[in-house]
Structures are given as structure tokens and as C-alpha cells.
Amino acid sequence: MKSMRGSLRSYVFGATLLVAGCGTATFVVQQYDGNPLPREQIALLRVNGGDPLRLEALDGERLSYQLRDSATRIHVELLPGVHELTVSDPDEGLPQTRRFRAQAGKVYRPGWVTELASSERGAGHKFVLFEVTRDSDTILVELADLPPPKPRPKAPVAAPNAPVASASVSVLAPAASAPEVAATATSSDAPSAAPATSTPGP
């Protein structure tokens, strides 16, 4: 068994090939940075060759690639956590996106389910993700679609400084003093004028 690793984008131009004992060629892609981690610490996204499915994007990384050979498959090694996968039907070209939570040690595979009572693919089908067994690729459960992330609250915008009104200070003039009233004081100590006397004439 021989493997080489590269980014998911580099795989589109030719990357990583692992030839299993059964003869299936598996392209192994490490999405995270650093040294390879044990499989107990990562999740796998498996895409089987020959499936009517085109990889459009993973976590915002544009791909637009389809495996046409049924004897090949892709294993994308993911870190545990929330991821976003976009695929399309090659016949329709309409992309569909799902957000899912990957768990360490588990394997996931995209596929289609028919929503309407029709055997014709494309009539009401939708993109789903399954958890599958690592060895036999048997479907275990369909994953729930996570809601889109909530937008971050916008930072409050400070209002422009309002013009400061100049405060007018009123200076009150001192109150006018009451008019002085001249009072004539009569002193009891002041000598009183002598009454005028008339002198009788001769």
C-alpha cells in the first residue's frame, strides 16, 4: 500500500494515490495542515467513482471535479468539527450545499435521495450525507443538516459628535437698594426754643 498526500485543490490536478488490496484506487487527501494524524483522530469524507455527483466545494475551497472511474474513490481526511460541502448533479449542474458535523473515526459519503415518488433521478432529488462503515461502505444513518451560521452582530456605530451649544451665562445685577428714607430724629436732649414774649408798649 502506497500513499502520497496533498491539498484538496492539488488533487484536482493530480494527487495522492493509495492502492488497496482489493484493487480499488483511493485518492487520499489531507485537508488539514501538518503531519498526518491517526485515523482515530480524524474523519473521512468518501466519494465513490462513478457516482452521479460532482464535488463543487469543500469549506469554501472551489473544486469542480468528478470521479468517472468506478474503480476509484476519494478519501478526504477532515478534522472533527463543522464542515460545509457543496455538490451538484453533473446532468443538471445545480449545486446543493450541506453543513455537517464530522466526528473522529467516522466515515461520511455524499449521495442523492428522491423526495418525490419517481424513479427518475432529478425529479425532486436532494443531496444528503450518510455515515457509512469504513470497510463495506454500508449506510448507517443519514446526517442531519446543520443550519447556516448566524451572522456576526455588527459593531455599534458611534454617533457623530453633536455640536456643543455654547452655554450663555447670565450674570445677575445686584438688586437695587431700597431708597434711603431721611428720617428727622428729634432728640429730647436738644434745647427747646424759648417762646417769644411781647413787651408791652409804654
Assembly category: single chain
Q: Main sheet?
A: 7 strands, mixed
N-to-C CA distance: 177 Å
> What are the secondary-structure elements, in order, as H or E?
HEEEEEEEEEEE
Instruction: Please state the overall shape, judged from the principal axes of the Cα atoms.
Output: globular
Compute the average pLDDT.
74
Strand content: 25-35%
Work out the helix count.
1
- Uncertain spans, ≥5 residues at pLDDT below 50? 1-5, 9-21, 177-188
Number of strands: 11
Q: How much helical structure, as a percent, in the residues?
A: under 10%
Radius of gyration using CA atoms only: 48 Å
Numbering strands along the chain, what is their spatial order in the largest sheet?
A: 1-2-6-3-9-10-11
Secondary structure class reads mainly beta
Q: Strands, helices and their partners?
A:
Layout: H1 8-12, E1 18-19, E2 25-30, E3 43-48, E4 54-58, E5 61-65, E6 72-78, E7 81-88, E8 95-102, E9 107-114, E10 125-132, E11 139-142
Parallel strand pairs: 2-6, 3-9
Antiparallel strand pairs: 1-2, 3-6, 4-5, 4-7, 7-8, 9-10, 10-11
Descriptive labels:
mainly beta; four-stranded antiparallel β-sheet
How does this structure look, described?
The chain is mostly beta strands and 202 residues long. The chain has a domain at 8-142. Helix content is 2%, strand content 33%. A seven-stranded mixed sheet has the order 1-2-6-3-9-10-11, with no helix packed on it. The protein has a four-stranded antiparallel sheet with strand order 5-4-7-8. The relative contact order is 0.13.
Structure summarized in a few sentences:
The protein has about 200 residues and is mainly beta. The protein contains one helix and eleven strands; from the N terminus they run αβββββββββββ.
